[in-house]
Amino acid sequence: MNNTQDTNQKRRQFLLKGAAVTAAAVAPGVMLHTAVVAKPLGEAVTDAVRWGMLIDAAKCADGCDSCVQACNDENGLDLLQKPQGQAEDLWDQQIPKWIRNVKVKDNLSGHVTNLPMMCQHCEEPPCVDVCPTTASFRRADGIVMVDRHLCIGCRYCMMACPYKARSFVHDVVEHKLTRAPRGKGCVESCNFCVHRLDDGQTTTACQDACAKEGHDAITFGDLNDPHSEVSQALKEQSSTQIRADLKLNTGVRYRGV
Fold it and tell me: Which own/partner pairs from 158-164 qualify as long-range (CB within 8 Å, at least 24 positions apart)?
């Protein structure tokens, strides 16, 4: 083997062992860099699983916000601090909320139901349809998410969501969790604690908190598995979709509404 062949072989071996980095232009003056590692970090998400949730509103205790607090703690939402001098009412309007406690009143009976409202993880998500940069996307396992690196803050998805489930980050995020990166100028929403699921766990923070309080109003699991707890619960009693008329086939269903 001559020197040229030997050099080329060593170069090929080096490239195969190392991580190849490619760059693709996504906009004038903007380059997107993608690192290709030799060993995958985990198995790819497939449509063999569809994550979903059943919320029994009849079990939601009046005044309880354990699911909201658990979501805030899990995703670092409570780390966001009110800007100095900002009015409390404006702060309350702008602070990101991945779960909102909604009260629904029956006009005939006057009965009031507490309803935890979050991203419904639609099979046909309107937020994805209107996003101009594909920042809003639906994973193969049914989880609807926002890629903050692609989000340009246009907020079209917020206007398209019939559940008002998305929040816009108005202020600089100085403190955040590694598992839940956040940033000013981006839209965000419930992602079914995707970092847990990708780590092999099978529960969400809101579900665990609700169970700890003894309410057990939230059941989470694989909708594609007929033997899962959530599938069995959906089979045993009737449930409903919020705005079923839109035919979005939501991943979150409600009982007792």
Answer: 158/127, 158/187, 159/130, 160/126, 160/127, 160/129, 160/130, 161/119, 161/126, 161/127, 162/126, 162/243, 162/246, 162/248, 163/117, 163/118, 163/119, 163/120, 163/242, 163/243, 164/100, 164/117
Q: Cα(122)–Cα(138) distance, rounded to whole angstroms?
A: 8
pTM of the model: 0.81
- Structural domains in the chain plus CATH codes: 3-36 (no CATH), 51-255 (3.30.70.20)
pLDDT digits (tens, 9 = 90+) for 107-166: 888 888 889 999 999 999 999 999 999 999 999 999 999 999 999 999 999 999 999 999
Q: At what angle do helices 66-75 and 205-212 cross, to 10 degrees?
A: 140
**What is d(CA 174, CA 183) in angstroms, rounded to the nearest whole number?**
9
Residue 114's H or E segment, with its range, is strand 112-117
Q: Which amino acid is at 46?
A: T
Q: Which helix (H) or strand (E) holds 54?
A: strand 51-56
Backbone angles phi, psi at 86, to 5 degrees: -75, 140
CA dihedral over 234, 157, 169, 96, signed as positive or negative: negative
